[in-house]
Amino acid sequence: MALYPPIEPHQSGMLDVGDGNEIYWEVCGNPAGKPVVFLHGGPGGGLLPVHRQLFDPAAYRVALFDQRNCGRSRPHVRDPGVSLEHNTTWHLVQDIELLREHLGIDTWQVFGGSWGSTLALAYAQTHPGRVTELILRGIFTMRESELRWEPARDLLPDHWERFTAGVDGDLIADYRRRFADPDPSVRLAAARAWTRWEMAICNLIPDEGPIDDDLALTFAMIESHYVVNRGFLEEGQLIRDIHKIRHIPAVIVQGRYDLATPIATAWDLHRAWPEADLRIVEGAGHSGGEPAVARELVAATDRFR
User: Fold this and answer.
1) Annotated catalytic residue: which of 114, 117, 224, 287?
2) Number of domains, the chain
3) Do 118 and 239 share a structural domain?
4) Domain end among 162, 194, 229
5) DSSP string covering 224-275, please?
6) Which of 21, 124, 143, 295 is deepest in the core (most CB within 10 A)?
7) Which residue out of 66, 95, 258, 268 is catalytically annotated?
8) 19 lies in the same domain as 50
9) Which residue numbers delimit the AB hydrolase-1 domain (predicted)?
10) Contact yes or no for 21/75 (Cβ under 8 A)
């Protein structure tokens, strides 16, 4: 894989973003380098050390943060009584701006994969003057057609059957009811099933590995909150409003066989935004950890350094 060597942050802290929330942030790389902000996936996926390795540490000043209620941000979605009322796309867009101001950065590159691509587009369209370039992977825009998992259902019927076992009525509503159940065993079983489905569709070869229960609960509860609310976006909004950012240099990296965020969305985005460089990765799925996808991502960050 073409990633840069592991690196540790030289700055980190907690930022009060209001509504009783604090987000964990960190900065690594060259303190005098080109600023970039990394937006993780999920929602609720949190940061991983490998995310720092997508950027040349000699060239970039890399800012990363855990989005609301996940990772090291507080309060955590698993804490008793925590509400996700103040966890929406627009709260997160505001958090990105607060972090930029806190770090004393005027403009920066924005990098986002999967849900991070959704958030990157929403941020850039809200604050186009603050974005120097965009690097987007596995495009997801929360359109109704993207939330039905139809290609994945057709290709992975065995996994889909396990995911939908025992569902009563609407799939997402049923899972939301399970996540709110007072019985911890019901919540955990639902989170495991939700996360197992995500693991299956996020890799070219379905991942059958072990599941961390804490991460599963975090991921499932926050992601389902966004799915049931359609990302707090109008239908087709992010592609409709692409005119606001067509002047921003951009690279779109998309696995040909991505089942989590199928290529049709990246294609629709590119048709609306022909200036963006669409890099279709043959023989790849959704995960940014697949070697061919990682090579394209590092090539994109190297191009803009």
Assistant:
1) 114
2) 2
3) yes
4) 229
5) HHHHHTGGG--TTHHHHTGGGTTTS-EEEEEETT-SSS-HHHHHHHHHH-TT
6) 124
7) 258
8) yes
9) 34-287
10) yes
Token pair recorded at residue 210: 């072990």
- Among candidate residues 229, 250, 279, the one where a domain is terminated: 229
Q: Any catalytic annotation for residue 258?
A: yes
Q: Residue 1 domain-assigned?
A: no
pLDDT band at 30 (very low <50, low <70, confident <90, very high): very high
Please report the pLDDT score of residue 178 as a whole number. 93
pLDDT of residue 207: 75
**Do residue 205 and residue 99 come from a single domain?**
no
User: Which positions ≥6 away from 161 have C-beta within 8 Å?
Assistant: none
Question: And the tokens for 71?
Answer: 């990772």
83 part of a folded domain: yes
- Return the H-helix or E-strand segment holding 151: helix 150-155
236 and 100 share one domain: yes
Range of 86's domain? 11-145+231-304
User: Are residues 215 and 256 both part of a single domain?
Assistant: no
Are the CB atoms for 195 and 216 separated by under 8 Å?
yes
Evaluate the CA torsion angle 115, 117, 120, 126 in order and state its sign: negative
Helix 213-228 and helix 184-201, axial crossing angle in degrees, nearest 10 = 80
For residue 43, say if its preceding peptide bond is cis, omega within 30 degrees of 0: yes
pLDDT tens, position by position, 101-125: 999 999 999 999 999 999 999 999 9
Spatial separation of the C-alpha atoms in residues 224 and 211, rounded to whole Å: 18
- Is the same domain home to 118 and 162? no
Active-site position among 40, 268, 286, 287: 286
The reply to whether 238 and 91 lie within a common domain is: yes
**Residue of 108, 109, 73, 103 lying closest to 91 (CA atoms):** 73
Residues 286, 289, 290, 296, CA torsion sign: positive
Q: Hey, what are 138's tokens?
A: 């596995």
- CATH number for the domain that contains residue 51: 3.40.50.1820
Residues 154 and 267 in one domain: no
